[in-house]
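Translate sequence into structure tokens.
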Amino acid sequence: MALDREASLGYLSNWAARLFTRALERRLAPTGLTTAYMPILFALADGGALTQKSLARRAAVEQPTMAATLKRMERDGFVQRQADPRDGRSALVSLTARARQHLASVEATADALNDMSMAALAPAERQALRWQLLQVIAALEADEEAARS
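Result follows.
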């Protein structure tokens, strides 16, 4: 039995994600940011502060990965931690001024890459693809939730 990678949704979506990630990494390199930081940047872009646990949930990142990523981001000067005034046992994480100064260009870079990657699709096809991917994500998240129960 030969596996056909072009018939596998999982393989195709992973392949596209890897190519997208590499393209975004090349474009972000001058800023010092990496794609690993993107979920945190987007989760904190509104200027608020979150606990690590809340941030992990919002960014859809596992706690150990979140802890390691925040440590690197703090080292690189992109996030800061402050004691949570409501709970002395935890800290609130927020973006630094250095990170905030890059938000607009990061968003523009991601938007341009999204546009480039879908240039061959008509607007209706782009919208359909986004909707279909959201449906796939919802199904996989439901499966993950069921596995936890």
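Note: The longest strand covers residues 87-95.
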